[in-house]
Amino acid sequence: VLATARIRSLVAALSAYVRPEGGARERVDVRESVEDALRLVAHRLDHVEVVRDYSQVPLVPARAGELVQVWTNLISNAADALARGATAAAGSTLDAPLGPPTLTLSVRPQDGGVRVDVVDNGPGIAREHLDRIFEPRFTTNHGQVRYGLGLGMGLAKSVVDAHGGTITVVSRPGRTRVSVTLPPQIPGALAAAPANPKEES
Questions:
Q1: pLDDT in tens, 73-105
Q2: What is the number of other CB atoms lying within 10 angstroms of the CB of residue 187?
Q3: Is the pTM of the predicted complex or chain greater than 0.85?
């Protein structure tokens, strides 16, 4: 019964994820889109403590599938960082993360819209990488560009921008926080613009 329920929830999450681009925006409960993303990447979080800190939030205008892509990317990046931190810490206390691998997801209201914080206690992002984090194709994953459920931070920013929002990253050893804000209304010029831009080849 539990396996069946999990499969159904995953199918529902995938349905949101693969929704055709350019679909009409709707009023979205951001908490549900974050949960969809968690279901998609649950297999990568087996050894990670996931802490949910959800407040009551307003619905915001968005394409739900695109938001799921953004959260999937951010959660996958955090999972990668936590895995690297665990590997680096093996046999050493110098590079150990602060406590067991933990991912904290916070969703709360801000300025009439919604703010989402994705926080991990991994090794952090090097200062020289922070300046390039939103460049197309840039990755800190040992020089390998990975394609799959994640968008890459550059394209994640493009999606957030297309929703009239902002995305910022603050990082130090033991704590990385990615914050996304989504406004209560999309500015007129952006509301008519296509979202979910494709990466140039």
A1: 999 999 999 988 765 555 444 444 467 999 999
A2: 11
A3: no
Residue 134 is encoded by which pair of tokens? 């939103």
Residue 116 near residue 53 (C-beta atoms within 8 A)? no
Q: What is the pLDDT of residues 101-124, one digit of tens each?
A: 999 999 999 999 999 999 999 999
How far is it, in rounded angstroms, from Cα 148 to Cα 42?
Answer: 15
What is the rounded CA–CA span in Å between residue 35 and residue 167?
19
Task: Say how far apart CA 99 and CA 57 lie, in whole Å.
Answer: 30
